[in-house]
Amino acid sequence: MKTGIFYGSTTGTTREIAETIANRLGIAPDDVHDVAKTAPSAVAPYELIICGASTWGDGEAQVDWLDFLDGVDMIDLRGKKIALFGCGDETMSDTFCSGVGELYKRLKKTGADFVGSYPADVYHFNHSEAIVDGAPVGLLLDQVNHSDLTSGRIDGWLLTLS
Questions:
Q1: Is the whole model's pTM more than 0.90, yes or no?
Q2: Among the listed residues 95, 100, 6, 94, the one whose alpha carbon sits nearest the alpha carbon of residue 61
Q3: How many domains does the chain have?
């Protein structure tokens, strides 16, 4: 399955996670895209589109996603799969990884199927827009407080994508 990874990163954390995922899946560097430097149409050749965002402000996705989402959410992606991952800080208890939820809400319009829900019960938070109908819409990570869990969580999540 042809897989592309798309990420937005301000501090480099989400980029590092995207690169880790690419390495574990054997994805070539040309198939890993910084959304700040990528046209939305770049999603077209991929059957599995992995998207990663951190959470900023009052729960928004990283700023580079804004223009990219404005373009990609108008593309018909029926027949394709989308998997989401995101970085947050559980001490931001009311917005933990809500940037992932923003991606989910915007990308639902494309008609793609979402895969990769992964339990987030290792974290303690009050609310997250990334929890929909009682389950996470993707892989939620906390590199600030629980970086020791990240590697194992990525491995477990990747198994849900196959």
A1: yes
A2: 100
A3: 1
Which residue has tokens 């890993």? 32
Identify the domain containing residue 126 by its residue range: 3-160
Q: Can you tell me whether residue 87 is helix, strand or coil?
A: strand
Residue pair 98/63 in contact (Cβ under 8 Å)? The answer is no
H or E segment to which residue 54 belongs = strand 48-56
Q: What is the pLDDT along the chain (162 residues), one digit of tens a residue?
A: 999 999 999 999 999 999 999 999 999 999 999 999 999 999 999 999 999 999 988 888 889 999 999 999 889 999 999 999 999 999 999 999 999 999 999 999 999 999 999 999 999 999 999 999 999 999 999 999 999 999 999 999 999 997
Backbone angles phi, psi at 81, to 5 degrees: -115, 145
| Residue 135: CATH number of its domain | 3.40.50.360
